[in-house]
Specification:
With about 375 residues, the protein is α/β, with parallel strands linked by helices. The protein has 16 helices and six strands. It folds into three domains: about 190 residues, Ribonuclease H-like superfamily/Ribonuclease H (Nucleotidyltransferase, domain 5, 2-Layer Sandwich); about 90 residues, DNA polymerase, domain 1 (Orthogonal Bundle), CATH 1.10.150.80; about 70 residues, DNA polymerase, domain 1 (Orthogonal Bundle), CATH 1.10.150. α3 links the parallel β5 and β6. The longest helix is centred in the middle third of the chain and has 21 residues.
């Protein structure tokens, strides 16, 4: 269907960005998506921002534009609805790279989850509702490469082109099932969630630090191998796993090689041995002789907290099965922790703890208090 659509407008100059802003600022709603390069760079970044307005499809090139602050008022404007599909990661990336804040969001993937759809991918939803076929092969493309292929351009514009129609269909169904308030509650909370993660591929050692299946000496060897791998990955500007897989690092730590001839047994290819063999052996030797690292410890949870947590999980799963939705739609994960660790003693305290989930408080507050063992809960 892309052949019958006018080509999207490529926005790679300040003048074109200003024209885009003029259009977006005049609209009651816009559709948005992003493409990043996490599979192809040491530290990922947003490489493309797609917009659709009632007038046109746009592809904004952040690699060609040094300043995108003109977009900030659009994202923060409560009068303009921003329609995303699977907004969470897009919001994380846009906050991280550009410092944007958000208001008035509609997430079509989450709307489908609230409705209980078994499959919520954009390709599945567009195919079922509008007979639109999307080529998902480009999902893992290198969006940091230029120029984009014709196929990438088609794929990128399809991510936003049909979102208005999909949004309207899902809103209608949410109203019919009386779940629109529930969805809007989640959209509102997503606008204000602050993600503390840095860019991908900061320190690959963090993924191993809490493992209990490795001895402290083995963990120390892994730590030194990670230090080497991260430096090499950053130098080459590629993800650490594209230098060496985690499984290879563990194999090297469990059976430390003494010479290059031993490296193939750990899973290194001939090319890796030729390029990095000496460096790997050096990192292993340093790890074998260095002071032991400390294993990352997670403080054990109180038994009472664990009991409350389990009761809440069982309850929300049961309610979710009744409504044919996943359990986190009934009570999102953050509230499980809050309510199990700081249980309320009355309805007012529960209301305060659930101030960002007022619809769920109204609907399930009494049940939650009973689950937590509060007497006389209605």
């Amino acid at each position: 269907m892309s052949d019958v659509l006018p080509p999207p407008i490529w926005v790679n100059t300040t003048e074109k960005l200003e024209q885009l802003i003029q259009d977006l600022a005049s609209q009651p709603r816009i559709a948005v998506d992003t493409e990043s390069n996490s599979l192809h760079a040491f530290r990922e970044k947003v490489c493309l921002i797609q917009f659709t307005s009632p007038k046109a499809d746009y592809l904004v090139d952040p690699l060609a534009l040094s300043d995108l602050t003109m977009l900030a008022p659009i994202f923060a404007d409560p009068k303009i609805e921003k329609v995303f599909h699977a907004a969470e990661y897009d919001l994380i990336c846009l906050r991280r790279d550009f410092g944007f804040s958000f208001a008035n969001l509609f997430d079509t993937m989450h709307a489908a989850r609230v409705l209980g759809y078994p499959a919520v991918g954009l390709d599945k939803l567009l195919g079922d509702k509008f007979n639109v076929v999307m080529d998902k092969r480009h999902q893992k493309a290198d969006w940091g490469a230029r120029p984009l292929t014709k196929e990438q351009v088609h794929y990128a514009r399809f991510d936003t082109h049909y979102l208005f129609a999909l949004r309207d269909e899902l809103e209608k169904e949410l109203r019919e099932k009386e779940r629109l308030d529930l969805a809007h509650e989640d959209f509102e909370r997503a606008c204000h969630l602050e993600d503390t993660k840095g860019r991908s591929n900061g320190s690959s050692w963090d993924r191993f630090a809490g493992r209990k299946d490795l001895s402290l000496r083995e963990l120390t060897v892994v730590a030194h191998l990670c230090q080497w791998r991260d430096k090499e990955a950053e130098r080459l500007d590629r993800p650490p796993y594209k230098v060496m897989m985690d499984s290879v690092l563990i194999a090297l730590a469990k059976n430390p090689p003494e010479a290059k001839v031993d490296l193939s047994a750990a899973g290194l290819s001939e090319k890796q041995i030729r390029i990095w063999g000496n460096a790997v052996l050096s990192a292993v030797r340093h790890g074998l002789g260095a002071p032991l690292v400390e294993r990352k410890q997670f403080p054990p949870k109180d038994d009472a907290v664990l009991r409350r947590l389990e009761k809440l999980k069982v309850w929300r799963k049961k309610v979710g099965l009744t409504l044919k939705v996943e359990s986190d739609i009934i009570l999102p994960k953050p509230f499980l922790s809050i309510l199990s660790e700081t249980p309320p003693s009355n309805m007012e305290e529960l209301k305060s703890l659930m101030k960002y989930a007022p619809t769920r408080f109204d609907k399930y507050g009494g049940q939650i208090l009973k689950i937590l063992g509060v007497k006389h809960a209605n």
